[in-house]
Every structure is written in structure tokens, then in C-alpha cells.
Amino acid sequence: MSHERLSTVVISGLTLTAILLVGIVIGKGGDRAGYASEPYEELQVFAEVLSQVKKHYVEETQTKDLVQGALRGMLAGLDPHSSFMTPDMFKEMQVETKGEFGGLGIQIGVKNNRLTVISPIEDTPAFEAGIQPGDTIIKVDDKPTKDLTLMEAVQHMRGVRGTSVELAIEREGLEKPLIFNLKRDIIKIQSVRSKLLEGNVGYVRLSQFQEATVDDLSTELEKLVSKNIQGLILDLRNNPGGLLTAAVGVSEQFLESGRLVVSIQGRNGKKDEYRARAGSKNYQYPMIVLVNHGSASASEIVAAAMQDWGKAVVIGTTTFGKGSVQTILPLSDGSGLRLTTAKYFTPNGKSIHSIGVQPDIVIDPKPAQLAKQESSEGKKDESAVDSPAPSPTKPPAPSAPQDKDQAQPIPPDDLQLLKAVEMLKSWKVFKQLKPAA
């Protein structure tokens, strides 16, 4: 498949987000010719119901509202990731892929038929409050989420900057729901950040896959290369995904020309392949990719490509398992359709949908964090479960400005990052070993 076709496809790793944090590129709508020749007799029943509701419902209704409600129900009945968007929602999606928008900073999806937090965005109200990947949102302002579609949940969590919203959240290991009172804010996303770690290890954090991510990554990698790094860590933890073009472009930075990045297959059975283009940088460093349960879709594409081609060791916990592709189709009245059109497969031909990418080395920080908490508290305080807990992956604020050209310290409670740096240091040592004569 050509890269021109990439612009019409969206990877729904972000699923729908509480800030509508979704990477999209708008393609043209489907050909409307031939509709009259297709069997739509069933629409007669729909028209009858519409007429009866208009005539007899206890309150006056608007035809447009009824039709849009029917469309939302139809798409929601297909799968959790297909949806109908009103004109206002559709415009918001087109703007938000640029990386600045309003909301809480929560990416949400559906896991086991429950509204689940994929990850909070760094430096947002949700992140600061301590919302964690895997949390289940059961209520938004006292409205149960089991009665809401993804799009409806998103709309309830959106609002004017400075206004408040209350979330009731269930968290594994806690007997009572957590209550979070959050103030909405303007969310600005810097999708790529880098720094130098001890041992001359380069560190790159990708928070999502936006339009500018590939160019920004290239710039940051060049900065790290100029510092003569000995290894590289690509941190995809809590990255919910985004644009397919960005996932392919990121993978190209480390793969030889022609290497398969990902393939997608629709219901016609045909597979379209996306391969690394000639002229990509193809950095050859000892490399580790960090993932966790909040790594979804586009993140899983990159992690799987690095793993399948032996370009990196994947460390962390099993990823979210979002392996379907959504296409965005504009409709004639300015509304939009977000439709699941394919599943994607890793270079080895595996589908990760509902399974996730399995790390080469599993490091789950939760047991250590729980042990630390229990030892400091002596015993579990049941009264504390109604208060928001701090995010375990949030790094401590630096006490003084840091020189970006100097090696930065590693947060002592980030076990996955500590292990990654330790491995890259050992990598260099083992390469220097020589067999005895």
C-alpha cells in the first residue's frame, strides 16, 4: 500500500478519549451511488417507528435528534470503537490531532464491556490527580457509564476550562470506589521528549502519535546521537496510540528499507502492507522499548515491529491489546463516521487484538509499590480508599532546574526504567568480553 493511502486510515489505539485525544486524517466519504439498488426494505420499519414517536411520544421530539440517536445506537452496536459524530464532534476531532484541546487528560476505551482508562496524559488534571491505567470509570457526575457510549462519555467529560467534573472510579485491589473532583483544562501535548540518562543512555518518551511526531522524533534522536550515546530507550508506556502514519514513520527510524512494519486486513481478506521506506535513518543502537497496559494500538505496532525484527528488547507489562483499524468518513451534513474497517497484524503475522504485546522481560512495578506502601503504613487503611492516590509512575519534581546536556537521574521508584538502563550498561560490558585463549 502506498503512503498516500496511509492518510485515509486511522489506528484507533486512542480509542475515544476523555479529551477526544485521537489521531485522525480525513479521507473522502464512500461512493453513494447504487444505494437505491440495495435491499433497504427494513428501513420501512424504521420510518414507521420514527413516525409513531413523532406522533405519540409524551414530549415533543425533533426528527434530527431521533435520527442521530438511532445512528449512535447502530454504530455502538457494532463494536466499542465505531461511532457516529455530530458536526461539532467531527470538527473537534479534526482540530485535536494537532495536539492542543480542552479536557481532563484521560484516554478511555472499552475493556471487558467497561469504560476503562487507557492512560492519563502527563501534566494534565487527570495525571496530577492520580488516575491510573486500568481504572474503571463507573460514573461521570453521578451518571452511570454503563448507559453511555464512548462518544457520550467523552462529551460528558468535556467542558469549559475551569469547570469541574466528578468521576467515580473502581480500582483493582480497592473495596470502595475512588472519587475524583477534577477541573477541566486546556490540554497541550508534547508528543516527543528526550534526555540523556546515566551511562550515556539516550531516553525518548513518546506520549502519543501525532502529525508532527515523526519529525519531532527525528530531531530528538539527532540531538542524542550528537552526545555519543551507547544505547537507546524508547518509552511507550501509557501511550494510547494515534496516527498509523506516525506509527510507521517512527518504526522506519530503526528498520532497514523494505522491512514490514504492519499489515492490515479487512473483511475482503486482502492484506495491505506498510513497509519502511528507503532513505530512513535506520539507527543501530542497543535498544529497549518500555511498555505497559496503557500502551495501545500505534504503540503496539511499534513495539511489535521492534520485537519481531529483533531490533529491541521489550520490557514492562502486557500492552492493552487494541488491534483494529478505524477509518474516518465525512458525511454530507458535516457529521462523521468512525468505522472499524480492518484488523492489523505484526510483521510475524500475529494479531494482538484483545491479547496485547507480550514483553520479552516482564517487570510489573505494582507488587513492589504495594509492598512499599504496606510497610510504611503498617496495615491497610480502609478509610483512605475514598481519597485519590498519587500516580505510581509520576516522577518526582526536580528541586532545581536541570541541564539537559547532562545525564539526568532516574526516579528510584521507576523499576522498569532502572532495569532498562542496567541492561544497556551490561550490554556494553558483554560486548567487550573476549573468550580466553
Give a description of the structure.
The chain is an alpha+beta fold and 437 residues long. Among the domains are: 91 residues, PDZ domain (Pdz3 Domain, Roll), CATH 2.30.42; 193 residues, 2-enoyl-CoA Hydratase, Chain A, domain 1, CATH 3.90.226.10. 27% of the residues lie in helices and 24% in strands. Helix 8 runs parallel beside helix 9.
CATH H level, superfamily name of the domain at 192-323 and 342-376 and 406-431? 2-enoyl-CoA Hydratase, Chain A, domain 1
Residue fraction in strands = 15-25%
Which structural class matches the secondary elements? Answer: alpha+beta
Overall mean pLDDT = 80
**Biggest pleated-sheet summary:** 6 strands, antiparallel
What is the percent of helical residues? 25-40%
How large is the count of helical segments?
Answer: 11
The CATH topology of the domain at 192-323 and 342-376 and 406-431 is 2-enoyl-CoA Hydratase, Chain A, domain 1
Q: Write down the Rg.
A: 23 Å
Total DSSP E strands: 21
In the CATH scheme, the class of the domain at 192-323 and 342-376 and 406-431 would be Alpha Beta
- Tell me the CATH architecture of the domain at 192-323 and 342-376 and 406-431: Alpha-Beta Complex
Through-space gap between termini: 53 Å
Which regions are unreliable across 5 or more consecutive residues at pLDDT < 50?
Answer: 1-10, 12-37, 370-401
Which term fits the overall shape? globular
SSE inventory with pairings:
Layout: H1 3-6, E1 10-11, E2 16-17, H2 43-56, H3 63-76, E3 83-85, H4 87-96, E4 100-103, E5 106-111, E6 114-120, H5 125-129, E7 136-140, E8 143-144, H6 150-157, E9 164-170, E10 178-183, E11 185-188, E12 192-197, E13 201-206, H7 213-225, E14 231-235, H8 244-252, E15 260-265, E16 271-275, E17 287-291, H9 298-308, E18 313-316, E19 324-330, E20 336-345, E21 361-362, H10 366-377, H11 415-432
Parallel strand pairs: 13-14, 14-17, 17-18, 18-21
Antiparallel strand pairs: 1-19, 2-5, 3-20, 4-11, 5-6, 7-8, 7-9, 9-10, 12-13, 15-16, 15-20, 19-20
